[in-house]
């Protein structure tokens, strides 16, 4: 059973005629966030503010922007702050209303009306693959998107929309691929591909995947970033996937199996090459850079912040 926060949003979706409309997004937020301790001792890392919104709100906005307004968060300990953020805050809203502070009131209410948000608990954080498997009953037998809060994608770069289109046209599962320096592939899942990954938005066939390989063993320098559109066949694969790297059940290992399965069994993995604006919030240094980058772009005070940074 999942719990639900009541909200709604009518958005356009990249729906292809003849294909069922894909509406569900799964956002796993049950990780321990050890790289951010002690900041993440009492709150999930997805609730850390990036300029003036928690990271998770950017991610839900991205899902809704791509037409996915049914959002399932796979939570663990400390889920209270997440639920509160997407729920009404009557006292606060009334106080702002009484003050006539429409601007802040709208900002407070924005997260509440964004999407239909559901929650399910993972129990033991046994890995990203296990978190995705927790979504099986909610998702059913339709393809679905998975978005990780570690990666924020600039709304001007519609990566998820492209991935949904590729899934609708070609079937199977779709991953996002980012070229990284070879000595950093060991931080990511890594893909072997057929074809040319030169252009932004290029679609390539993925032939193999390996989680956090040593640079000398990596099949390429194409790293998986935190956006997936998965065929529901992934659930059966995850049920039989043994713990891998870090003794965790890895989505990358399930994708490795899907890449070798026939299309009529839900197999096949496609990669969309991404060269757009991505803000990594997964560790402390990247997070600081993301806050500065997005701070400089803030419509209200970005220019002043940029001037101040330069003056230092
Ligand atoms: P990470 O690998 O970044 O792990 O998970 P983490 O525990 O959150 O962070 P560190 O490495 O300890 O600092 C990627 C995403 O998968 C979720 C996390 O919440 C994060 O969004 N996740 C991971 C789960 O939901 N459950 C898990 O068992 C593992």
Structure report:
By secondary structure, this protein is α/β, with parallel strands linked by helices. It contains 11 helices and 14 strands. Residues 4-15 have low confidence and may be disordered. Bound molecules: uridine 5'-triphosphate. Uridine 5'-triphosphate is lined by residues 28-36, 45, 74, 122, 125-128, 130-131, 148-150, 282. The site of uridine 5'-triphosphate has 22 residues, from helix 5.
CATH topology call = Spore Coat Polysaccharide Biosynthesis Protein SpsA, Chain A
Q: DSSP strand (E) fraction?
A: 15-25%
The residue fraction in helices comes out at 25-40%
Q: Which ligands appear in the coordinates?
A: uridine 5'-triphosphate
Largest sheet: 10 strands, mixed
Please state the overall shape, judged from the principal axes of the Cα atoms: globular
CATH architecture, please? Answer: Alpha-Beta Complex
Order of helices and strands: EEEEHEHHHEHHEEHEEEEHHEEHH
Q: How many helical stretches?
A: 11
Total beta strands: 14
Query: SS-based structural class?
Result: alpha/beta
Overall residue-averaged pLDDT value: 91
User: Domains counted in the coordinates: how many?
Assistant: 1
The end-to-end distance, rounded to whole angstroms, is: 53 Å
CA radius of gyration is 19 Å
């Amino acid at each position: 059973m999942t719990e639900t926060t009541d909200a709604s949003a009518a958005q356009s979706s990249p729906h292809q005629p003849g294909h069922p409309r894909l509406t569900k997004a799964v956002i796993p937020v049950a990780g321990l966030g050890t790289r951010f301790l002690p900041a993440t001792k009492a709150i999930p890392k997805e609730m850390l503010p990036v300029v003036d919104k928690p990271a998770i709100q950017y991610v839900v906005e991205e899902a809704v922007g791509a037409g996915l307004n049914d959002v399932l968060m796979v939570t663990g300990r400390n889920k209270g702050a997440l639920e509160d953020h997407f729920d009404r805050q009557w006292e606060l809203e009334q106080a702002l209303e009484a003050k006539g502070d429409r601007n802040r009131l709208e900002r407070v209410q924005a997260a509440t009306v964004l999407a239909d948000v559901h929650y399910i608990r993972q129990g033991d954080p046994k890995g990203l693959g296990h978190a995705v498997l927790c979504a099986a009953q909610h998702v059913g037998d339709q393809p679905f998107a998975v978005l990780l809060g570690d990666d924020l994608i600039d709304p001007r770069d519609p990566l998820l929309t492209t991935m949904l289109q590729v899934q609708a046209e070609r079937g199977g599962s779709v991953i996002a691929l980012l070229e990284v320096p070879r000595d950093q592939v060991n931080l990511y899942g890594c893909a072997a591909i057929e074809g040319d990954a030169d252009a932004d938005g290029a679609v390539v066939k993925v032939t193999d995947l390996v989680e956090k390989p040593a640079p000398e063993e990596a099949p390429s320098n194409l790293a998986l970033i935190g956006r997936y559109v998965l065929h529901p066949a992934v659930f059966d694969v995850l049920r039989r996937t043994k713990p891998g790297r870090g003794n965790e059940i890895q989505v990358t290992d399930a994708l490795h199996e899907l890449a070798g399965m026939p299309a009529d069994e839900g197999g096949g993995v496609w990669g969309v090459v991404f060269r757009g604006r991505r803000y990594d919030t997964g560790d402390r240094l990247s997070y600081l850079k993301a806050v500065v980058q997005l701070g400089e772009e803030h419509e209200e005070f970005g220019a002043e912040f940029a001037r101040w940074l330069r003056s230092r």
